[in-house]
Amino acid sequence: MGPGDLDRALCGLPLMDHPNLLVGIEQVDDAGVYKLMDEVALVQTVDFFTPIVDDPYAFGQIATANALSDIYAMGGTPITALNLVAFPIKNLDIEVLRDILRGGLDKMREAEVVLVGGHSIEDQELKYGLAVTGLIRPDEVITNIGAKVGDRIIITKPLGTGIINTAQKGGVASAEVVQRAVEVMATLNRKAAEVMRDFQVHACTDVTGFGLLGHLCEMLGEGEIGIKVYTDTVPVLPGAEEYARMGLVPGGTHRNKEFYVPKVDGTKDVPPYLLDILFDAQTSGGLLISARSRDIEELLNSLREAGVKDASIIAEVVAEPEGRLQLV
Ligand code: CO
Ligand code: CO
Ligand code: CO
Known about the structure:
The protein is an alpha+beta fold. The protein folds into two domains: 5-140, CATH 3.30.1330.10; 152-327, PurM-like C-terminal domain (Phosphoribosyl-aminoimidazole Synthetase, Chain A, domain 2, Alpha-Beta Complex). Helix content is 36%, strand content 25%. The strands form two sheets. A seven-stranded mixed β-sheet has the order 8-11-7-12-9-13-10, with helices on both faces. The protein has a six-stranded mixed β-sheet with strand order 1-2-3-6-4-5, with helices on one face. Helix 7 (211-219) runs parallel beside helix 9 (251-260). The radius of gyration is 19 Å and the shape is globular. It binds cobalt (II) ion (3 copies).
């Protein structure tokens, strides 16, 4: 499903309201937050998808890093997870599933998250993912809304995983390019989130299906701010430019462009391949962190020192034009 589809499906349905529900489904945030007591809230999210790489073990790692990412993006600490498995048992060797689950378990161990259960069904198409629960202090929840004029925005991973995945399916991508993309997708956003906690951060989200510009549009909220995007500082995975120039762009990226382009100025001045990269639907992308300008260099340095090497300042929050992205 593309951007706006869930909104359309939910439109007019009576949603849940509860005094303990701090972040709910209508907020289009990364995860839901439910207050248990004054000091503790649950952060909950679920994510699953069809394989995006050939190697089952790598797919398990990536799906797990991706599912955990929404907890990190809220400022939370993931503690438990449940496996979600759909598997074509009549057509695929059970060893494939074993490798996927092993990849997931290794990633959970790295994240110090405990697998507490799961559920599997038979399906024509393989799918894997997780439901994850984390903890957070209610007063430390970081939502995707809240960026302030004068902030600058950091991205913590390079873009292009959707394009590279499409090139791989087309048999075009080189082994080195795929290897690097897999490494990036399998990397936990844990370190970035830990560094972020030491700073006064106004807003955060992770870059996934809507692409960089789609998620930046979501950060505009009701539109009291604008965001200026420095397109030449955006980190891009090796190979992504070459494949984007060849037109190897996934359907989700095109849908993102159609949906969000009306909110974006300056698209005509950006080469088409770069626009595709900026809208590219990502799997297990990096965090987008909005913080005060005077803290931003220190935040960037702290991220890089913690090993988040691709972190870059890519945007600035401005007063005008309201409710719009401006590509420069
Ligand atoms: Co997210
Ligand atoms: Co999600
Ligand atoms: Co069950």
